[in-house]
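Attaching the record inline, Q. Sequence:
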Amino acid sequence: MTDMPADAPRSEDGRWWWDGSQWQPVTGHPAAAATDAPQSQGAASAAPAETVGQLSDDGQWRWDGTQWQPAQTGAAATAGSTAATPAARQVTVGVPTAEARATSDGTTAVIVKYSVTNSGTTQIDARSLLTGFYVLPAGHTAETAAYVTGDLLVSLAPGEEHQGQWPIQVDPGSWKVWVAVSDETTGDVIATSDDVPFEIAGRVAAAQAFDDTQAYSLSVAITNVEHIVGVLYRVHYTVHSDRDVPPGLTVTGGIEGAESRSGQIYDLTTGITAGAPHAHYLTLEADVPSHSTAKIIMDPGGPSEKSDSVIVDIAEDGTPTMSR
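Structure, as predicted:
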């Protein structure tokens, strides 16, 4: 039996721990051997907010007890989808490359280049498969996760390869990135690439310890959506609080359009002063042109959760127009 790591995700009843592929009994627990294991990691999602197994609002991330992890990645995602994958949906994702970039105003990002090959025996129809790009830190940084869905793949004959690239905003630090391919209709993950490590040079914003049991009376309002370059946008927002909030409060942001969506999880590096507006922004990706929704959530799943959303119409030249 595999030894249980100290930080392993546990089921709600404490009898089982998740090894990344399946539930294992907790050694020495009096009831573990006599009870069937949970059927999936989702069995823990009925637990209170911010407990192991909790899904984010967009369903893309799951709380592992320490940090947010993509809901379907790696061996667990592949094992969960392979049996239901028809021959027409068999693909192989090559090892991606990650190239660090900075825009003219200093915004840091990574360009992920990837390849997908039809490894089945039947042609794959155009726009039936969707690519996704996931980034997680190798250390304790304020930006704790980011993702973006990218291209709807072109038609692929058996053995044919598709190549593409997509940018993701990433702060300075050490990271890993991988690519996933999912069925556009069902959302099932079909294949994932290997993780690829990369570095973004610059001053690293460290994550702060935060007491997430404290409740604050928060209000949040999106004030502007700014086009940086290409598909990169800044969603500006202002937060008010009834009392001082220390650094470390978690914020999630996302932009969802007709064909792509992006998200980021970030811990504030500065505190919020009671009664004073606190201005901040998250940098996200959006498809161009599009009719999209931008959303900011403060303390997602926590006792102080508040959110705001706006409609963003993006023109062909990338110009955003915000409305409510």
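DSSP finds one helix and 21 strands in the chain. Residues 216 and 304 are 5 Å apart (CA to CA).

More tomorrow.
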